[in-house]
Design brief:
It is built from five helices and seven strands, in the order αβαββββαβαβα. By secondary structure, it is α/β, with parallel strands linked by helices.
Length: about 140
Amino acid sequence: MSIDDKIQAFLAGKRFAVVGASANREKYGNKVLRAYLQNQYDVIPVNPKAEEVEGLAAAADLNSITGTVNGVSVITPPAVTEKVVTETIKLGIQHIWLQPGAESQRAVEMAEQAGVNVIHGGPCVLVSLRYREEVD
């Protein structure tokens, strides 16, 4: 499957989680969340230290989310990413997008071995969703 096919399959989902979502608007975890919001996607911020991000109730982890999640964007350090990928696989979520800086070879291999559509190695969701920095 080409990278474009992987991205198209990922974005065909109805509901997404952003693991590593941040309340700090300067951080990529916040920008990725806002990119989903700008495109009217149903998205849940995941951050164990935040109650709310961009006006949305935050989940402590993927297990805390009620209902189906079709895809997970990951913006975490590689060691945390491996735990997120393990959790994603256990929950049966079939699409993972590892943002640049979050990748680890082990996380990619785990996802691929589980048959999960994993996007890694460069493409950023901010580009694919045509993120626009809002001017206040």
